[in-house]
Amino acid sequence: MSTISESRSFTTDWLHQNHELYTAATNHTFIASIRDGTIDVINFKHWMEQDYHFVREFVRFVASVLLKVPRDSPEQDADVILGGLTALESEISWFRKEANFWQIFLEKVTPLESNKEYCEFLKELEGTETPYPVAVVAFWMIELVYNASFMSCLEEGSKTPFELLSTVKRWGSLEFHQYVHSLQQLADKALENVSEAELKKAHEVCVRILELEIKFWDMATIQTG
Ligand SMILES: Cc1ncc(CN)c(N)n1
């Protein structure tokens, strides 16, 4: 569960209502294997190859969220999203550097089915039919899964291998945790005055993201060779 915000809101309610799915997404066997130090390096490389492709698509999604921030909202709201977009530039450089270390040829990677499915979903969310409140909720949920997952690999007693610490700290840091909390606050604010239909849609999007995140981790562990 979110460790910063415990007060009641739509987003916290949805996390409680989907507790099992959330736990499956944030405590997947892939993450557990990093945490207990048993991860197979092949699985880690599979994840990295696929995630690089995902992040390239994710940039476009985040840019679309930025465009949807209502013009009459405080400037800081757009700044939060802009901060996320800027961070993705350094994330892409980080992927390239890590890929070099792991001898991964990113340009030769073919996106697998679950990755394609997730990227297709991002494209749907980018469209003008998806209103800002739904889009910002999606952005928050996507980042939350990575933050909660990788934070658990830094907990006391975890046996995360040294070579994976750079990855784990990228998404498991307190700084990123605070960023995800800012997104959650933006999401809850945006949900304050939406219709029942939009609220329902935003909740459905959260559930779908949790399912897609589970499939994404599965992809890294199920692949062979
Ligand atoms: C699949 C996935 N989900 C979330 C994130 C975090 N931006 C990511 N890099 N990849």
TrEMBL record:
<dbReference type="InterPro" id="IPR016084">
    <property type="entry name" value="Haem_Oase-like_multi-hlx"/>
</dbReference>
<protein>
    <recommendedName>
        <fullName>Thiaminase-2/PQQC domain-containing protein</fullName>
    </recommendedName>
</protein>
<feature type="binding site">
    <location>
        <position position="51"/>
    </location>
    <ligand>
        <name>substrate</name>
    </ligand>
</feature>
<dbReference type="GO" id="GO:0006772">
    <property type="term" value="P:thiamine metabolic process"/>
</dbReference>
<dbReference type="InterPro" id="IPR050967">
    <property type="entry name" value="Thiamine_Salvage_TenA"/>
</dbReference>
<feature type="domain" description="Thiaminase-2/PQQC">
    <location>
        <begin position="17"/>
        <end position="220"/>
    </location>
</feature>
<feature type="active site" description="Proton donor">
    <location>
        <position position="213"/>
    </location>
</feature>
<feature type="binding site">
    <location>
        <position position="143"/>
    </location>
    <ligand>
        <name>substrate</name>
    </ligand>
</feature>
<dbReference type="Pfam" id="PF03070">
    <property type="entry name" value="TENA_THI-4"/>
</dbReference>
<feature type="binding site">
    <location>
        <position position="91"/>
    </location>
    <ligand>
        <name>substrate</name>
    </ligand>
</feature>
<dbReference type="GO" id="GO:0005829">
    <property type="term" value="C:cytosol"/>
</dbReference>
<dbReference type="InterPro" id="IPR026285">
    <property type="entry name" value="TenA_E"/>
</dbReference>
<dbReference type="InterPro" id="IPR004305">
    <property type="entry name" value="Thiaminase-2/PQQC"/>
</dbReference>
